[in-house]
Amino acid sequence: MDLSLVPLSKLAEEPYSTILGYPKTTRRELTSRIAELRKLGIKGISFTGQAILNSLNVLGKGYVGVVVLSKYKTKEVALKIRRIDSSRAEMDSEARLLRLANEVGVGPKLIANSKNFMIMEYLEGRKIVDWIGELKGKGSAPKLKSVVKKVLEDCYNLDKIRLDHGELSHIHKHVIVGKSISIIDFESASVNRRVSNVTSATQSIFIGSGISKLVKKIIKEPQRGKLITSLRKYKKEQSRKNFEAILQVLGLEKT
């Protein structure tokens, strides 16, 4: 990573400044943000990743922030930079929700945060839609079932603590598969609305999205009527028993 590491002293220069203060900022704000990063213990940023923003590679971009690969002390981390045009004035609320998810073993581990930044565990891997798209040959079905069950178990754990992710109907963007399997990006999460993590994720994977078309090529498609009935029952009472009934309909109970 050090070969491509841009040190803090250069982040106020173009083109790097367009990421640190995305989409547009002032010299004063850049100076302030660099000081904030230094205080957090960030050594620099490595512009790598599948997303491209202002001609630079990044790990991801959302409505609240831009995520980049960074060096924190001696290790690689994911650094989320609050966008200048974000409707949120700070990162504390998102950090608090991620910390809550971490308490039940879900999401990248939160390391530290400040007003404009969140430092998180860097999860190397591929988005679930890309991972599924590359599955081939013998053993593909058991691998896929194992990943899907882990995702749904994480969703159930979030439901139990009444933390709604908010974006799992678009699950292809929000799960990373690598050495570990993790739900990511809690910027739309809330504890102030009805939780629908299990139902949203299940529908996205098996019923109504591009990812479901990939899934049904690898594992047997569940009976839609039975699945919808089990989801409705779970929605009324989010119990372990009703969750396991969903897993049974999906053929995941023994995975």
How would you describe the overall organization of this protein?
The chain is of the alpha+beta class. It has two domains: 2-91 and 107-121, no CATH class; 125-250. The protein has helices at residues 17-20, 27-40, 92-102, 128-133, 140-160, 197-206, 210-215, 224-236, 240-250, and strands at residues 5-7, 42-46, 51-53, 56-58, 60-61, 65-72, 75-82, 110-113, 117-121, 125-127, 175-178, 181-183.
Brief overview, please?
The chain is of the alpha+beta class. Helix content is 38%, strand content 20%.
Shape: elongated
For the secondary structure, the number of strands is: 12
Rg value: 20 Å
Structural class determined from secondary elements: alpha+beta
Q: What does the average pLDDT come to? A: 95
Indicate how many domains the architecture comprises: 2
Proportion of residues in helical segments: 25-40%
Largest sheet data: 7 strands, antiparallel
Order of helices and strands: EHHEEEEEEHEEEHHEEHHHH
Low-pLDDT runs of 5+ residues are: none
Write the layout of secondary structure elements.
Blueprint: E1 5-7, H1 17-20, H2 27-40, E2 42-46, E3 51-53, E4 56-58, E5 60-61, E6 65-72, E7 75-82, H3 92-102, E8 110-113, E9 117-121, E10 125-127, H4 128-133, H5 140-160, E11 175-178, E12 181-183, H6 197-206, H7 210-215, H8 224-236, H9 240-250
Antiparallel strand pairs: 1-2, 2-6, 3-4, 5-6, 6-7, 7-9, 8-9, 10-11, 11-12
Helix pairs in contact: 5-6, 8-9
